[in-house]
Amino acid sequence: MAAKKQSGGKSSRGNGSSTSAKSTSGSRTRPETRAVFVASQRRAEANDTKEKGKKEKSGAQQPAAMKEPAPPYPQQHQPHPGIEAEIDPRPRYKGAAYKPAGKLEGKAALVTGGDSGIGRAVAYFFAREGADVAIVYLSEEQRDAEETKRAIESVGRRCVLIAGDVTDSSFCDDAVEQASRQLGRFDILVNNAAFQQHQASLEDISDEQLELTFRTNIFGYFYMARAALRHLGRGGAIINTGSVTGLEGSEEIIDYSSTKGAIHAFTKALAQNLVDKGIRVNCVAPGPVWTPLNVADKPPEKVAQHGAKVPMKRAAQPEELAPAYVYFASEADSSYVTGEVLSVLGGNTTAG
């Protein structure tokens, strides 16, 4: 999410030179005009130096209305899958600065991994935009799922809880059927469930970890999308969660990066396949985000510095990713967009 320009950050260089040019045109000699210009340039440079000093002292700038937590975070670790209710600080998902506009009024969506992290924020933002939402989650995440349900119901929408594992194709079939039946329609699928585990070397990735990563992160997306196509009609949308690691790779999550690259290719291929049916398929590729996935994956000292290396010097909060999913879900906003991978990277510009 791009930071707003600070009130003092606008350079006076252009203002000074253009103002003097307007006021002196035809009334001063060329040397006099040059002298005025040089003087204005010096004032601008002095002001720029002053502003640069302020920025160096304060670090990465955030608008006051969106001041988000930044490293160092408290050192912490949880076993997989991670519980959002136990993270400090709690991931932010409500989007206090976000203004809904009824973009998904009357729609029904299913969000995998919708109990926490990005999935929770997406489900909640969809509800704020008028959609009823079903969320899929692991049974160990019941506590988080119930909190998400309460949040969705607090804005007047329905929420269906569906516990199960997206690595099982029959469960995916049943989940889509249950969501469609209980919500009365099916318009939007968000594939978001994920598994990630750092390993220092390829030799450290066991067959079991490799299979779990691929079955969760790409097989599950196939299974859910295939089941959803029985219900999605013209105007429907499939939104996949990719990752910067699928664009650039990451040396200690080789298997995870591979699945995210596959998700990006899956998005583009499926978009081509479904364009004639009027079903749009897109992908959001985040950088570091403050979610249970990372607290469960990294050692405490690395959790404390999560996101510190990006230009904004912090991890994104889930509420900063959710508007991208609303954009792809909303026909009013993205009716001409399909097959896109939208990166949200906190200032990084090399990916993609």
General description of the model:
With 352 residues, this protein is of the alpha/beta class. It has a domain at 108-344: Rossmann fold (3-Layer(aba) Sandwich), CATH 3.40.50. It is 44% helix and 10% strand. It is built from 12 helices and 7 strands. The chain has a 7-stranded parallel sheet, with helices on both faces. Helix 1 (13-24) runs antiparallel to helix 2 (30-58) and helix 3 packs parallel to helix 4. The longest helix is centred in the first third of the chain and has 29 residues, at 30-58. The chain is globular and about 80 Å long. The two termini are 17 Å apart.
In short, what is this structure?
The chain is an alpha/beta fold.
What is the strand and helix layout of this fold?
Blueprint: H1 13-24, H2 30-58, E1 108-112, H3 117-128, E2 132-137, H4 142-154, E3 159-163, H5 169-183, E4 188-191, H6 207-228, E5 237-241, H7 244-248, H8 254-274, E6 280-286, H9 292-297, H10 300-303, H11 318-329, H12 331-334, E7 341-344
Parallel strand pairs: 1-2, 1-4, 2-3, 4-5, 5-6, 6-7
Helix pairs in contact: 1-2, 3-4, 3-11, 5-6, 6-8
